[in-house]
Every structure is written in C-alpha cells, then in structure tokens.
Amino acid sequence: MDDRVHPEVRRTATEIDTMEIRGAATIADAAARALRTQATESDAADAEAFRAELRTAARALYETRPTAVSLPNALRYVLRGMSSTTVEGLRQNVVESADEFRARLERAQADLGEVGANRLRDGDTIMTHCHSTDALACVEAAVEQGKHIEAVVKETRPRNQGHITAKRLDELGVPVTLIVDSAARRYLNDVDHVLVGADAVAADGSVVNKIGTSGLAVNARDRGTPIMVAAQTLKLHPGTMTGHTVDIEMRDTAEVVDDETLAELGNPTVKNPAFDVTPPRYVDAIVTERGQFPPESIVILMRELFGEGTSEPWAEPSSRVEP
C-alpha cells in the first residue's frame, strides 16, 4: 500500500476486507472517518499533493469491497466537497464533508426504522437473513412503539451472521427462534414478513444481498409471505443507471472448509460467493429513510439523489469515469 496512506486508513481497509467492520452503514461511517483522519494528519506540501493523497487513501478503501455500494457512495460524498485551492482549505472541506455525512448517516437509520416499523403490526413474526442494522432499526422502532415482535433468524452460513442478529434482537426483548438456513421454507408459514437488508440496490429494483437472499425470496413469494428490504439510500447503486453491473465478491474458501478437510474430500472446487441478486418481482417494498418504494420505482429516487450518472473521484484524473 502507498506510503502516503495514513495508518488508520490502512487499518480500516484491512478491517473492512476481513469483515471485522461489516454492514453497509458501518462500512460507510468507517470510511468517512478514515478519510477525515487522512486529511487532518496530512502534511502535503500543496493542494495538488493533498488531492492526490486523498485519492490514494480513498482507493485503498474502495478496493476492499467491490460490492459494498455504501463504501464508494461515502467516498464520493467526502471527496466531492474538495473545492478549495489551498491545503488548509481542502483539509477543512474534507472534515466538514465527513462530519456532515456521518451525521446524516446517523439520522438516516433512525428515520428508516420509523418507516419500516409502520409495516410491522403488533404480534407479527419476521424472518431475517444475515445481519442488517437497517433491518434491525425497523424492529427496534416497532418495539419502541409498543408492538410485540417475534423473529425466526436464519443462522446464515458460512460466517453465521445470523448469530449477531439473534443477539441484538434478544437485547431488544424480541423472542428469537434460530434455524439452520435450509429450514427456511419449513418456517415461512409461521412468519408475517421476511425482513432483510441490502448491500446494494440496482436501478431496476434488483437487490444485492448476502448469498441465500434470492432463494429465500423465491420461497417466500411461493408461500405468499411479503418481503421487505430495508436499505438506506447510501446503498443505491447509481452506476447501474448507466449500464454498470454489480460485481459479486467471491470470498476465501477457508470460510467454508479448512485445508485438511478439503484434502480428505479429494480437493473439490469450492465456491463461496458473498452475495446474490434478487429480482424486483420477488420484493414487495424497499424501505429507505426517504420513504418506502415499490422496487420498480426506486430508479426515480436514484435519479433525484444522483442525477443520471456518477463519477469516481478517487481515480487518477487520466482514468476517471465521469457522468
């Protein structure tokens, strides 16, 4: 990694890559905080050197998670505010943009939770997949409204993120039933909603989320169980409006099977995709801090927020993709 990259940026990039920092909102917050530190600690001699240093730091963060759309959206928000022509001015630009982004991020989840809670009735049981702070915000808001909510939580292999969800729901006073992933269809008749988060939402309303979400959605639609996706607007993927596709990250096979067991099995090929894509026809509503939307209309909100395209301000000027 480039020597100009601050140690906190390096640490943050490593923790995002290893999933010690996980969850779209948490990743975005950590990235904005890291860029703020890069700016405040920079000893760049001139404005151009400062800009180059911030681009380098942003690239180090961006390259850790190709599908975590909240990450590039956070980087765009912080970097696009660099309008000054002096080092001190640019430093202040970054600090103000990072602070503003993090403040909006904090408010966004609470606002989203209030919107999502309106879809949950007293006595409802939800089924969750993976761990989503946005989805949990909906449950928390519903509980604060005095509603009794119960949950069927999928363990979500291979990293068992469902365990995190189960613990957090227990802290909220929500009765939890933890199930193996393959038992989801069996218990769908016992739930009122499937409630999941999203790592990215495409312009056509497709939802990119933890592997297994798509299969759960298909089964839920077959059983007539409504599917709600909780996703802050920072998870909208503006690049998909101009034809860009969402890359699906392939995780380390060691998350699935260790080398010794692999050898005992005859060294089969192991695939460990982190995400899958749920088509919009299987989603009933996408809940954001700006309200709830049918998946097919999410592009309207996307255009309002991002225009008709986007840029990559962390790229070097000669290779930058502009709207």
Low-confidence segments, given as residue ranges, are none
Shape: globular
Q: What's the multimeric state?
A: single chain
Our count of helices gives: 11
Overview in brief:
Helices cover 43% and strands 12% of the residues. With 323 residues, the chain is of the alpha/beta class. The longest helix has 31 residues, at 87-117.
List the helices and strands and how they pair.
Layout: H1 7-17, H2 24-41, H3 47-62, H4 70-79, H5 87-117, E1 125-128, H6 133-144, E2 150-154, H7 161-171, E3 176-179, H8 184-187, E4 193-196, E5 200-201, E6 207-210, H9 213-223, E7 227-230, H10 259-264, E8 275-278, E9 285-288, E10 291-293, H11 298-306
Parallel strand pairs: 1-2, 1-4, 2-3, 4-7, 7-9
Antiparallel strand pairs: 5-6, 6-8, 9-10
Helix pairs in contact: 1-2, 1-3, 2-3, 2-4, 2-5, 3-4, 4-5, 5-6
Binding site for substrate: 22-25, 65, 209-210, 235
Pfam family, one: IF-2B
GO molecular function: ribose 1,5-bisphosphate isomerase activity; S-methyl-5-thioribose-1-phosphate isomerase activity; translation initiation factor activity
What does this structure look like?
- This protein has 323 residues and is of the alpha/beta class.
- The protein has helices spanning 7-17, 24-41, 47-62, 70-79, 87-117, 133-144, 161-171, 184-187, 213-223, 259-264, 298-306; strands at residues 125-128, 150-154, 176-179, 193-196, 200-201, 207-210, 227-230, 275-278, 285-288, 291-293.
- The strands form two sheets. Strands 3-2-1-4-7-9-10 form a seven-stranded mixed β-sheet, sandwiched between helices. The protein has a three-stranded antiparallel β-sheet with strand order 5-6-8, with helices on one face.
- The radius of gyration is 20 Å and the shape is globular.
- The two termini are 29 Å apart.
- Belongs to the eIF-2B alpha/beta/delta subunits family. R15P isomerase subfamily.
- It catalyses: alpha-D-ribose 1,5-bisphosphate = D-ribulose 1,5-bisphosphate.
